[in-house]
Amino acid sequence: MKNTDSTVDAVSDFAHGAVDKATNATNLAVDKISEKGEQLKITEQRLVKEASDYVRDNPMTSVGIAIGAGYLLSKLLSNR
User: Fold this and answer.
1) Contacts of 62 (CB under 8 A, 6+ apart)
2) Whether residue 2 has pLDDT greater than 70
3) 44/36 Cα distance (integer angstroms)
4) I need a labelling partner for 61 at 20 to 30 A (CA). Which of 15, 16, 22, 43 fits?
5) Calculated CA dihedral for residues 36, 42, 46, 49, nearest 10 degrees
6) Helix orientation angle between 59-78 and 2-57, rounded to the nearest 10 degrees
7) DUF883 domain: which residues (predicted)?
8) Which band of pLDDT confidence, cut at 50, 70 and 90, is reported for residue 1?
9) Is residue 75 scored above 70 in pLDDT?
10) pLDDT above 70 as % of the chain
11) How far apart are CA 55 and CA 40, in angstroms?
12) How far apart are CA 15 and CA 29, in angstroms?
């Protein structure tokens, strides 16, 4: 009975260690994903501001680009 108890304890300790390692790895991954998400949010805000500034500073060019892009998209989508 003593041998069985020590085997069960060893397996239990191993399982707990594996669960702890998996938990730590998961927490690290969540932290990294959260950090990257914040970086993406900041980048998105910067790009939106830059685009807004460009449109404000160059309204006619922006309208021309929009018309050209719309025309190209309509040609691409109408061929399907």
Assistant:
1) 54, 55
2) no
3) 12
4) 43
5) 140
6) 120
7) 51-80
8) low
9) yes
10) 95
11) 22
12) 21
Residue 42 has pLDDT above 90, yes or no: yes
pTM across the whole model: 0.55
Q: Which two tokens stand for residue 35?
A: 């950090």
Structure-block tokens of residue 77: 């989508």
Work out the average pLDDT over 23-27: 93
C-alpha to C-alpha distances, 3 to 7, 8, 9, 10, 31, nearest whole angstrom: 6, 9, 10, 11, 42
Torsion sign, CA atoms 62, 66, 72, 73 = positive
